[in-house]
């Protein structure tokens, strides 16, 4: 059963009024495949664009996006994030790995916030590097861990 449909199969926000607040965390990731011409520039250090340092800007964009998730996803509850971390690094293949962690003590989870942070950070890397090449691929945006609430979730990475 889909949680965001009422008895008449119409969209509805999930009623969390009877739930007890608990500490909830979610971790998500994204992969940005870069063409060699771009990844070579990152290997020399932090890539600077006209908009600023690519990884630092993407980290800020991911955090800002996580805080606005309920404004972007129609039936997502607004929550006051207590923590949001975005880690970005270049892997051995020359691709950008993004991992996010969202934390809150609330009646609902933070999966969408973690996923939104990863997605927007990846989009920001794309935006800041597209002047060098459009052969950039964003893929594998996924939740890989959730804690708190009814059930925990772990996906091997």
Structure description:
- This protein is α+β, with helices and mostly antiparallel strands and 157 residues long.
- The protein has a single domain (34-147), classed as 2-Layer Sandwich (Alpha-Beta Plaits).
- The protein has 4 helices and 7 strands.
- The chain has helices spanning 36-43, 54-67, 69-72, 111-129, and strands spanning 22-33, 48-49, 52-53, 83-90, 96-106, 137-147, 153-154.
- The protein has a 5-stranded antiparallel sheet. Strands 2-3 form a two-stranded antiparallel sheet.
- Helix 2 (54-67) runs antiparallel to helix 4.
- The mean pLDDT is 91.
Structural class: alpha+beta
CATH homologous superfamily descriptor: Molybdopterin cofactor biosynthesis C (MoaC) domain
How much helicity do the residues have?
Answer: 25-40%
The top-level CATH class is: Alpha Beta
Order of strands side by side in the largest beta sheet?
4-5-1-6-7
Q: Calculate the terminal CA-CA distance, rounded to whole Å.
A: 28 Å
Shape: elongated
Mean pLDDT: 91
**Helical stretch count?**
4
Total beta strands: 7
Q: What is the succession of H and E elements?
A: EHEEHHEEHEE
C-alpha Rg (nearest Å): 17 Å
The description of the largest β-sheet is: 5 strands, antiparallel
| Strand composition percent | 25-35%
């Amino acid at each position: 059963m889909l949680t965001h449909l009422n008895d008449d199969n119409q969209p509805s926000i999930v009623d969390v009024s009877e739930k007890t607040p608990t500490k909830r965390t979610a971790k998500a990731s994204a992969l940005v495949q870069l063409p060699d011409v771009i990844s070579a520039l990152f290997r020399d250090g932090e890539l600077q664009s006209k908009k600023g340092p690519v990884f630092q800007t993407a980290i800020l964009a991911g955090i800002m996006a996580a805080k606005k998730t309920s404004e972007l996803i129609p039936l997502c509850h607004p929550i006051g994030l207590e923590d949001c971390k975005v880690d970005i690094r270049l892997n051995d293949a020359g691709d950008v790995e993004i991992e996010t962690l969202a934390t809150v003590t609330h009646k609902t989870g933070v999966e969408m916030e973690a996923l939104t942070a990863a997605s927007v950070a990846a989009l920001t890397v794309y935006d800041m590097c597209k002047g060098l090449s459009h052969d950039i691929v964003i893929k594998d945006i996924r939740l890989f861990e959730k804690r708190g609430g009814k059930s925990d979730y772990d996906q091997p990475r």
